[in-house]
Amino acid sequence: MHKNRIGAYLFSFPSFFLTMALGIYPVVWALRYMFFEYQGFGTPKFIGLENFARVGRDAEFWHSVLNTFIYAGGKLIITLPLSLILAVILNRKLRGRHAFRAIFFLPTIFSASVMSIVFYIVFNSYNGIINQYLMKLNIVSAPVDWLGAAHAMTTIVIIAVWGAVGNYMLLFIAGLQNIPEDVYEAASLDGVNPVQRMWYITIPMLGPVLQMIIMLAITTSLKGYESIMVLTEGGPFGKTEVMYLYLYKLFFPLTTSGTSVQNIGYGSAVGFTTAVIVGIVTWLYFWMSKKLNNVY
Amino acid sequence: MKKRFATKRSFLLCSLLVMALMLGACSTGNGTNAAPEASAGTNGASSAAKTKISYWTIDRHDMDYMQEQVDKYNATNTDNIEVEMKVMADNYNQAVEVAFASNQAPDIFRSGDFQTYVNKGYFAPLDTLLSKEFLAKFDGLLVEDVYTKDGHVYTLPNTGQFWRLLYNVDLLEKAGYMEPPKTLDEMVEIAKKVTEQGKAEGIYGFASNFKNGSGFTRPAFASGSLSSETSHEGFNYQTGEFDFGMYRDIAEALHQMKTDGSMIPGAESLDIDPLRAQFAQGKIAMYVNHSSEPAVYTSQFPTDINWASTLVPTKDGQINGVTWVNAGGYIGINAQSDKQAAAVKFLEYLYNTELRTEYQEKGLGLSVLPYVNEAAGKPELKGIEGFLPTKYDGIYPATPISVTETKLEGKKASDVFIEYILTSNQDLEAAIKDLNTRYNKALAAARTEGLTNIQANPSFSAKSLQGSLGQ
């Protein structure tokens, strides 16, 4: 037994080492600078909690937090019900269901950056396909600036939903396949309609799977920024700036932003704050969703 | 029992193998210079005496030509130097940082972010390596914080981006204008007229790529600096403080064009390449960009439209300064390299007049070096003539804007101006006042912490830069 434990440690060591070297160490390396003034060169200067005081005063950061919640909220409200409905439909014994599942899952395997460039072509206002169709159908009389200040966030949410639905659909299908068929048969004998079937059987019986999927969806949405970086770079004038993009720019200034100097000290404090925000939201969700953990 | 022993033994062997592989991986890569020397040693007697140096560049537009020149140098130099040129992909600054951190940095390399490279000790001081005669070629050009710092030269100028107003000659003529605008009011008027005539066909008077801050800085830096005798990038050299009032006129002109409907729809989210594609199709009458454009309209977006370029307009046509030329350092020598003497020889080769004039004549880049511009013939590139150095082009001393923005609280200047241009949400005067207050507070903090030593220079006059690059 004791020797088996040594073996377990030995086999765990490579992944433990890699996690420490590539996951934990860089985080600790960056976080230690949250108490320092450091631009990436020279000697870091200890400034205590000043970086955190600046986070508190930084209206641009808190604006990006608000944008993050709008983005994540919009994405979750549409994605989760839509992927659950698709999962329920494609979990039936329909002809071609495997092909449909593959089609809906395809966006997950595409690079977010590449797809964002494609969506830029689709949504741009001067010759984008969407505007051309809308104008041809007389729905709008002038091109809509889908990526301008008024609509950029909505457009980004639509693209995020497109990219996420297939992934959550597949996870829901995995959960649905664990629900015994007998329960549905018994319910149909009792004459339940499809809505009752979904509300009183499917959702409660998904239980812990549903809880896990929602948690994954929340954390992924709060951390998402890649497609925003490609599509709008957080613009116009900060309208689509989300907190992880704001953080990214502090460590790796975009060449188009005009700033080339890193802000590692302040960036670390912002990084810590964003991690705390995501942590609190996740914890709140777990606390509120305890009931979902009950398997009926 | 025997089987169990065998299982345990193979289990133990596997564990040891995994550990050995990991340790092996961790122990490789002792540094740059070690690797080439080791390979030189194994290459046999023929190459043993060669001094091999590595050269990193990020320039892809000239890589074929530069590789030819490197091959020529390798074949002809009498110092037995062999240069290996490597064209790096994006994220060049990060690649250089990683290379220095792991002692695998090249011996000679393309300059990236000057301040960072000097502060981190990547650059060797060239004034201790190059002869005074060689450095004399750059007299009057070696601007502090761009090429030199604290009395030492770390990199040297080569080519630059020259900023101009690009315009569609036919669209302007159709609207009744035989000459491009010289004042901002003329630009606004022309944009309005062109749009009135062409809107039905999707033709608009003006565009800029407001997807990011450069949508403002492209026209504003060019026009603002040409108008001002004291300032660049919002920084007043004479007072040593920020004053964004220098961009009031150009911001108002851009705002007016937006209000008039003279800007192409979607300018808010427009990137530079889609803008170029529209210009190439004859849908945009005017925009501001730099001397890369002739190459863009030759290879990336070939076009038959009749376009030209001219100095950017100023408020009243008056020129008090120069249009800024973006001419950062070209290459530097690794401060840690033990082959600096060979790197110096190669650097001197890269600056020889024959190579540099041919480079310019092929249209690969416009030189800021007077000795090259005097010797070079007209570049073989359609449209380049409008970008050639004039009396009103110049290299400004560095400003502290980058380091100031690391201490800045609130919106950056470019975002504030773009919001004003695209919306009518704010009062421009109040916005400029607020920007000045916040930037000067951030600058004071940066100075206190020693992040910049750029101070006021009461005798600075941008007029003195006129004629420094051409006539």
Automatic annotation (TrEMBL), chain A:
Which membrane topology term applies here?
Answer: Multi-pass membrane protein
Q: Does the keyword RNA-binding apply?
A: no
**What are the recorded Gene Ontology BP terms?**
transmembrane transport
Ordered alphabetically, the record's keywords are: Cell membrane, Membrane, Sugar transport, Transmembrane, Transmembrane helix, Transport
Any idea where the ABC transmembrane type-1 domain is?
A: 65-285
SUPFAM superfamilies assigned to the protein according to its UniProt record, in alphabetical order: MetI-like (SSF161098)
The highest taxon in the source lineage is Bacteria
Q: Which InterPro entries match?
A: MetI-like, MetI-like_sf, UgpAE/MalFG_permease
GO cellular component term of the entry, any? plasma membrane
**Annotated transmembrane regions:** 7-28, 69-90, 102-126, 146-176, 197-218, 264-286
* Location of this chain's protein in the cell: Cell membrane
* Family label: Belongs to the binding-protein-dependent transport system permease family.
Protein name per the record: ABC-type sugar transport system, permease component
What species is this protein from? Answer: Paenibacillus algorifonticola
UniProtKB/TrEMBL annotation, chain B:
Listed Pfam families: SBP_bac_1 (PF01547)
Record keywords, A-Z: Cell membrane, Lipoprotein, Membrane, Palmitate, Signal, Sugar transport, Transport
Q: Where is the signal peptide?
A: 1-27
Q: Write down the InterPro entries for this protein, in alphabetical order.
A: Bact_solute-bd_prot1, SBP
Q: Which PANTHER family match?
A: ARABINOSE-BINDING PROTEIN-RELATED (PTHR43649), POLYGALACTURONAN_RHAMNOGALACTURONAN-BINDING PROTEIN YTCQ (PTHR43649:SF33)
Protein name, UniProt field: Multiple sugar transport system substrate-binding protein
